[in-house]
Amino acid sequence: xxxxxxxxxxxxxxxxxxxxxxxxxxxxxxxxxxxxxxxxxxxxxxxxxxxxxxxxxxxxxxxxxxxxxxxxxxxxxxxxxxxxxxxxxxxxxxxxxxxxxxxxxxxxxxxxxxxxxxxxxxxxxxxxxxxxxxxxxxxxxxxxxxxxxxxxxxxxxxxxxxxxxxxxxxxxxxxxxxxxxxxxxxxxxxxxxxxxxxxxxxxxxxxxxxxxxxxxxxxxxxxxxxxxxxxxxxxxxxxxxxxxxxxxxxxxxxxxxxxxxxxxxxxxxxxxxxxxxxxxxxxxxxxxxxxxxxxxxxxxxxxxxxxxxxxxxxxxxxxxxxxxxxxxxxxxxxxxxxxxxxxxxxxxxxxxxxxxxxxxxxxxxxxxxxxxxxxxxxxxxxxxxxxxxxxxxxxxxxxxxxxxxxxxxxxxxxxxxxxxxxxxxxxxxxxxxxxxxxxxxxxxxxxxxxxxxxxxxxxxxxxxxxxxxxxxxxxxxxxxxxxxxxxxxxxxxxxxxxxxxxxxxxxxxxxxxxxxxxx
Length: 519
Hints:
disordered N terminus; Amino acid/polyamine transporter I; 24 helices
């Protein structure tokens, strides 16, 4: 799938592939798909009674709050499942990536500060899309002969949509399509593009201190760093991400907060600009009146979804491996995942950039002279940090991108593994992992622009069958949510809804009774 050529070696075939990919990409990430994403989030929010707001205290207490109070949430398991906290960290490892830095910067430079507002909007409703994916993932997951949980969009498409009248063939086809798109995307946006980004930043950081680091040396280092983790399977990936993700998010959080506090007097003007530009009717980039709103909305929606992946059906594959019993419990981790990724990390990036002076807060337009000087919007965060910390600021952002991209590679390796297992069985797992780590080296020494563009398209294509599954199976999500709220908020003594499969339901129900309210 991946065609890797340097930009200096044009080819008619590559040009044709690029044109076809651009057309498909424009469709899968165009207005119809983005609107479908938004509508799905709105529908799931309504069907669950605005769970993310109405039960905010509850899901907060049972996610981030439980990390400090409930050992069952963080405790390592003896079987082949992973803890709820490990599943969150592995999912965040894949979602908190370069999109949180470079993607947000590009959204602001193109769509203005108003893009941040629409990023918040799509995240608010995306919380319930991600919640729904996780609930369905737990309801339709199964254990293999080794005792390892397997779940994800492909499973609830096959066994959920497939169980409906006339749905067997449709569900099977959608499940295969999702798995194929996921597998292909894992090599591109989950591997080579991230590695290429890491390599570029390491080279740039080396040059800033007078070191010339060859890309092949970086490739060998990253090859070893990735292989040492993913060849050990999900348990090893989870053990690394549960340490790496909190560390990198906290360090980035502190660094961004320092800059924001140094420009604290600008905070009112920054928020005013965000809300003003979100509804600006002024023309942008030669467009007609109203183009300002359209561009801000599109960039906010697109980069918000690209960052938190709510609706793509990706993170549910790792959430389904959790030792949780209650589907709604894992659904709440999905809410927190989107909250942490977009409302916290992306907002920190946006406030830092908007306080740097590179964006005119009155007009919402980026300073072209600054963009030309720093080499484009992708360097806006580096510019903001350099203004405060000097050359050390650029190095800090380079290291942040390194950690974010590395964690994304780890998370996506599991997504690709799940897709391979579904399509070809367990025998294909090791060959996939070996190919995956080899591509890590290739990604460090080759240009990967086309690979990035193609994998971005496959990433979007994953969304379409997944959203069909979420919408078709929305009654199941609503039923599971009502079952949970009836038992936990209204004290009703009714049978818990833990799985659609009778044998798993009985097993989980027995465990739930033995362990009390640790589901």
